[in-house]
Amino acid sequence: xxxxxxxxxxxxxxxxxxxxxxxxxxxxxxxxxxxxxxxxxxxxxxxxxxxxxxxxxxxxxxxxxxxxxxxxxxxxxxxxxxxxxxxxxxxxxxxxxxxxxxxxxxxxxxxxxxxxxxxxxxxxxxxxxxxxxxxxxxxxxxxxxxxxxxxxxxxxxxxxxxxxxxxxxxxxxxxxxxxxxxxxxxxxxxxxxxxxxxxxxxxxxxxxxxxxxxxxxxxxxxxxxxxxxxxxxxxxxxxxxxxxxxxxxxxxxxxxxxxxxxxxxxxxxxxxxxxxxxxxxxxxxxxxxxxxxxxxxxxxxxxxxxxxxxxxxxxxxxxxxxxxxxxxxxxxxxxxxxxxxxxxxxxxxxxxxxxxxx
Amino acid sequence: xxxxxxxxxxxxxxxxxxxxxxxxxxxxxxxxxxxxxxxxxxxxxxxxxxxxxxxxxxxxxxxxxxxxxxxxxxxxxxxxxxxxxxxxxxxxxxxxxxxxxxxxxxxxxxxxxxxxxxxxxxxxxxxxxxxxxxxxxxxxxxxxxxxxxxxxxxxxxxxxxxxxxxxxxxxxxxxxxxxxxxxxxxxxxxxxxxxxxxxxxxxxxxxxxxxxxxxxxxxxxxxxxxxxxxxxxxxxxxxxxxxxxxxxxxxxxxxxxxxxxxxxxxxxxxxxxxxxxxxxxxxxxxxxxxxxxxxxxxxxxxxxxxxxxxxxxxxxxxxxxxxxxxxxxxxxxxxxxxxxxxxxxxxxxxxxxxxxxxxxxxxxxxxxxxxxxxxxxxxxxxxxxxxxxxxxxxxxxxxxxxxxxxxxxxxxxxxxxxxxxxxxxxx
Lengths: 358, 427
Prior knowledge:
The complex is a heterodimer. Chain A is mostly helical. In chain A, about 75% of the residues lie in helices and about 0% in strands. Chain A has 17 helices and 4 strands. Chain A has a two-stranded antiparallel sheet. A two-stranded antiparallel ribbon of chain A has the order 2-3. In chain A, helix 14 crosses helix 17 (about 340-355). Chain A is globular, with a radius of gyration of 21 Å. The model of chain A is unreliable at about 1-5 (pLDDT under 50). In chain B, strands 2-1-3-4-5 form a 5-stranded parallel beta sheet, with helices on both faces. In chain B, strands 6, 7, 8, 9 and 10 form a 5-stranded parallel beta sheet that branches. In chain B, helix 2 links the parallel strand 1 (about 30-35) and strand 2 (about 70-75). Chain B is globular, with a radius of gyration of 23 Å. The model of chain B is unreliable at about 1-5 and about 5-25 (pLDDT under 50). The interface between A and B is medium-sized, with 19 and 21 residues.
């Protein structure tokens, strides 16, 4: 597992702990971050509805994926049930709003908290299990909650699903993509800052210690049970917030979306982005969201072309897309096992040291 | 510096020109969304239906369009996933005047959206919950902009229950016949469950607890043994053909003697070929007045439509293809009415659907059955045609040959006319 601390260029000496844990190592990186936020904030000016919807998708999935990265990448646990926590947040927020009239503005954070509680319950096995055994325990969470969604008509509307109102504050409805983008953007900034700061605290370092060598961590006085369970709670909180944002964006929550396939997709996002990298999570999410869209566009180009006619693909094109997505992910894992974050650091180092790289 | 300015200005001017040239040309077209399932759980029947929709739109465009304007359809394959349907809809809202949809779960999820945005939504879901435009019935909410062609799932199931009651008497069955609902726990198979069970009780059936099986093909031997143990006489299959075939085959192998009643999507020519002799005897409703090889006046139009994707004119089109074609033809005539009465918009298309009674699209006589939509009642018809599947011998050849040789055959066994009861509206 890589972390930013390992690959520093020579001559980069820190003289204080403060300098070592700063969020932005240089001014340029801070400026880049602000410019990136400004660029997204200005997106409605230069992107159409389709582009905006993709940005929003990257936003809410990125928040949920960050939660999983805290659990898998930073604490060294495993979860193959992340999608149901995402789903629980979505249903909880819609439920609070539909049945108790809680304004959506408040329902989203409340749904995050409710999901935290559920996550803590399902995180209890993590205190005793690790590795594949823990993976199977989280698989149980996936199936138990999925079945719960299908049966708990009072909570989820059963198999028919439930509508979710759009967010409105003082009568101003965030009901278009251009408006909702700002809600998601605000949440992304807050949640990513929170995670970055969490990793700079005593608790965050304890999580990393649990990951790197749990026996040593325990001997140093880190309470394993507490931090492993807490990691599940934090991870679920992020998933819940992401899910709630998704619910009020789409306007409808349905049971069938939160399958194990979706859970695996979250894992793919953080593995492709880079385990234990906060920035990488966002990159991995963007990659996983954009890949099917790009493949769909390519498949669309292929339809009706001479290649299509020569091979008689017809309806096969839709499946070609799915196959290509699988192939790209496999190739990615072979040629870039450390994730996009690693590649990004290499690109940065190249330009920083240009033309005298070593 | 000056150069960049020039380039930028030129680019902007070019973009503006392109935009200006593009907009009026596109405004001529009538934009319609087409949501199809070509790769999901119901793609077995979604593919022929979607082909019917696409071919009919192509045929309309090749034959003068709607008053000279072409229909620009955008097809999205949503894999039977509600979230994908909702996001596809969000991309269409504000751009399209009508939508050709597909499944029950997604159509019901979109009811509130299409009512708000006033976009007529032609589903291939015949859920009775979509038939109440004004509200006040047993349906959860009014669905003023939802339309479909054919009897509702509930009415089709009621018709089969009614047929089963007569069949029981005719066969001289003793005691109470046993009826059972089978299907996935999903909005689509669930849609007619309560209505059909209530009607079965009313007609003197003993209703057994429902048996579940998934929408995807699998091993359903356990379900068949349950069926056998419970001693069911009539079993309703609520799923689409793909998974029904698995049940029929498993029950055939287990020697279960039950009269299966299929949903409209539960049986067709392809399913009969795939299931072989296991499909023999299944009774199911057909929405159109004729099937592909029947000789009725409307078939000429259907053959012309079929040529849009099959220029040789030799393809055999299953019953779902015809249903898709009829749905689009009704939309076409409603659009034409709208064009003559103040212009095509969602609201005027809805009005165009609701002005006539017992109408058949021009040229489709004998295929599309006379249907009526009113502002208070969106049940197009309560007349249900029941067919029986018969399969003799091996079914290895292609469907057209099997039909030709008579190895697979669909025979009309009854036309059930249900009363238009107010209390049946919406469920």
